[in-house]
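Cast an eye over this sequence plus tokens and walk me through the fold:

***
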Amino acid sequence: MKVSGFRTEASRVMDEIKALFKAASTDYNRLRPHADSTLALLVSAHGKLAREAELTEYGQYAGRPAVTYSAFFVGRETSRPVRGDLYIAAPAEFAAKFRTLREALRLGPATWEDAEKSLANAVVYTSVMAVACAYDLWQRGSRKTPGTTFEIIMAALFQEMLPDAVFSKHIALTELLHDGDVDAAAEEEVDPAPVEDGDGPGSVSTDLVIRRTNDANTGVVLPLKITTRERIVQPFAHQRILDSAFGPNRYSSLLVCISETQLDDKTKTVKQVCVPGTVKLFQKYLAPLGGLYYCDVPQRYAAPDMQRVVPVRSLGDLFGDVADLLAR
């Protein structure tokens, strides 16, 4: 009976998390301010992990320096790797720091120092990993939900920072394409525009686009991915399309990720899966991105030879960099 009761409670909380995700997602898709509904989702997922899962050291990434990773465990179920020095484990502390970050964003990142950047990095990391790890343990089949949650979180935070900016998930190309080119362009990473945009059949679809209110064809494009894996080509291909359609320096793409980590069950270690050669080729010969941003910056991408080709920075640096780009 105890086991049955536990399962009922676990199921009830997951139903609550799903309902909160739906509410935050609805606000996000309608481009409404949604920091409150997002925080409700995050607090629920974070609390479930704190109550019902055990965060235990898993193994190391053998880098220079070595990095220790943990994972959440429930019975035989294991979550993705988690950096304990970035994850805010105490529920009350996490909620308080999320609110502190909101206030810091409202004041603007122009005067941020390392403390504010570290706060932003830890809060975003904890926010995404709380939902991702909860779904790893109790709803593993819902693979897209953690990634969508990342988009929802970042949109909510940038709305706090830039209340007068224009947010969207598409960049219309219809007026720049001949009628016969629309179908061909669609095969090259160009998606039909959504009904709410009303732009017709030819637009680049991404995760978050931020524009100034008085400049419809200039902005910052933020592809948001928990990890890139084989999809690393997508932001470079989108940037190539935007440069060809609008000219260089009209849109700047900043690839924003959480980490590039994988558990190795055989050795009980963690790997950082990187493709530096591919990134260098795309940056030089496909289209240049404005930068790569990570909460858990992969050591290989932080190396000097990579930094000479493309800036790789902490996600805590992202907010100030976006503000600077929009101000130019």
